[in-house]
Design a protein that fits this description.
The protein is mainly alpha-helical and 432 residues long. The protein has 20 helices and no strands.
Length: 432
Amino acid sequence: MKKYNNIYPFLLLLVVVFICHFFTEKGADDIRYMHALDDQSYKDFITRHYYQWSSRILIDSTIVLFSRSNIWIWRVLDSVFFVSIAFLIFKIFGKKDEKNLSSIICFMILLFPTWMLSSTGWIATTVTYIWPISFGLIAMMPFKDFSNRIPIYSYFGLIPLCYSSNAEQMCCVLIAWSAIFYFLYYSKKRKQEFYCICCICVCLFFLLLSITCPGNHVRAIQETMNRFPEFADFNFVQKISLGIAVPYHRLFTFNLLYLILCVALLILSIYKKRNIIFSVILVLIPVFYSIYMILMSDSPVSYVVLGSCICPDVGSIHFIILIILSLVSITLLSCNLYSLFKEVFPLLIFFTGFCASLLMSFSPTIIASGERTMSILYICIIILLFISYRRFLMETGNSKYKKMFTALIAFSAIFNTAFFLFLHAGLFEFFK
């Protein structure tokens, strides 16, 4: 029975996530995709979509399929995919003989801000941003055990890799990590780099598809005109600045997941007696910024709901303050991660998420798309939390620091789940 103990938390998590899905309905883009085949065939839809809108042929075809199906089919599958992310993180970054890791990763995944996935329709958003992450982690599973030879059956991972690579952000992430593992295998003379080469080739194909897709260029022009006309006049530095400021505005403004990461690193710093001042500053920055936003806004709640209030004037005082705080936070977080772990790997995880969000610098929808484009960054933060917890187990045992960390994660996860239910289950109306 012991070998199945790690499975039970994931089954319980699946029940909780599925219950949350009871309160999701089709909306926005889901409705549009539901009627996509009313006057055309699948082939015509794909052709028109490719030439007039997007290179996400696999992803958008999947959205059409599930938008036209009974919503319960999507609810079941999406619950499984969401839970699979937690399970894959546990399998890739954890070990079977480590107790409580399966339970803690289940709490950690509940810290993900799922409420923002309704922004353009539940089906459209999850199929575009959540499912590719799950498929990408499946494709990366063969890299888990660096010392062993990659078995032949692992090449089936190239199938989910195709879907994951159809999302531009995940495509770039997968190219980077496949290249990293290729050079690691090559330097160690493991003779296992062929799978890495296959992954890189698949990702490069979809990257080339994205770059050359006529629909992407047509959409960029339309989105610039309709959503962000000033974007056309921005130079490279201004776009990069916007790419840094927008995600960090969302991380700083009442963002529970990022704050938990900062507090967790502070607890670890106190235990190790390293970089305590840096960790305190890292925690205080989002607190200071949230207070600053309240003082600057007549309706601070709007910032929680919309997730973006960046002024198009990238020379404004507000924008400059945000850039300075963002760069300071990036520096402090990087220093803390390296100092506490003495490894480059946590840094790579952080910059994977950060660079995935930074890619939106070159999209005119960087503000309009909302927090859904930060899904990879949020998953990377969860992975960092999981790695930090493992370090607690290794170094502190059953100390008060470990109990403090566990309580922090558990109560925060419960609060975040309750917030989701209040937001989407109509409980706000009930308590009015």
